[in-house]
Amino acid sequence: MVALIVRRILQLLLLLVGISFIVFMSMHIAPGDPASMIAGPTATKEEIANIEAKLGLDKPVLEQYASYMNGIIHGNFGYSFQTKQPVEEAIASRFPNTLTLAIASIIIAILIGVSAGIISAMKQNTWLDGAATVASLAGISVPNFWLGAILILVFAVNLQWFPVGGLTAPPWTLEGLQQIALPAITLGTGSAAMIARMSRSSMLEVIRADYVRTARAKGLKERTVILVHSLRNALIPVVTVIGMNFGLLLGGAIITEQVFAINGVGRLVVEAIAARDFPMVQGVVLLIAALFVIINLLVDIVYIFIDPRISYD
């Protein structure tokens, strides 16, 4: 396990270096000049040149990248071109909202997806199985922005059960639960559909195994056979899908945050791209990349708890 963690940390460092280089070069190649946007439409060429010199944009690109990486090594991710705020502070102020949304979404996805998958597998080729299949396909196909708008129209505007948007209250309070409910359902629907399909496929494979027939032959209750003997052995591919989806939820909540006016890192990166705020975009992308690697490491560790026979030596 220690060797696995060390390997993943080394992989994380190499990955972050590669991603930082790609994002850095992409932002500089893309059209648009941050100095011109900061100076405004009436600025003179001299004023723009002064801003470029102040931001270090007048230096060669590779020299700028080397300076940026030197700052990261010393714990400095730079300052926002627009707000002059340190990048790490801006991300830290918004990341809790994105994390709350992602956790709430994956909880909903797990509860709905695993339950639907088990029921669909146990009732194979029945109307329940067909309904779960149709619901899964619909969940994967429906765009987040459309589903979010419909939920707002029905439950926030017409029925007035939930607020239209925003995420200001702590999630463990009643107000916080009301604020997070619709965004979490919107973001978690697609993940729930994928988890349901994987749970069904994995359960169908397991319940036909010899040890499950033996458990039933011993006279064990069906609930025990399903939850103890079948579900645990079917969980490994499901955990993989859950881990991948959680990473995607953290990095892909941009649309949902826009629809529900949530101040998370998704909206932050959209604003930064529009303003050509290089340090902010690079900081958010590096954070998301690091989270993906960490989540994959946690998934590997969970494998061992599910099936102790798994070894990474």
From TrEMBL:
Which positions, given as ranges, span the membrane? Answer: 12-30, 99-122, 134-157, 177-196, 234-255, 284-306
Q: What does the record say about its membrane topology? A: Multi-pass membrane protein
Q: Share an example GO biological-process annotation for this protein.
A: transmembrane transport
Q: Which residues form the ABC transmembrane type-1 domain?
A: 95-303
Give the matching Pfam families.
Answer: BPD_transp_1, BPD_transp_1_N
Q: Does the keyword Transport apply?
A: yes
CDD domains associated with the record? TM_PBP2 (cd06261)
Please report which protein family the annotation says this sequence is part of. Answer: Belongs to the binding-protein-dependent transport system permease family.
Please identify the protein, giving its name as recorded: ABC transporter permease
Source species: Ectobacillus ponti
Lineage here is: Bacteria, Bacillati, Bacillota, Bacilli, Bacillales
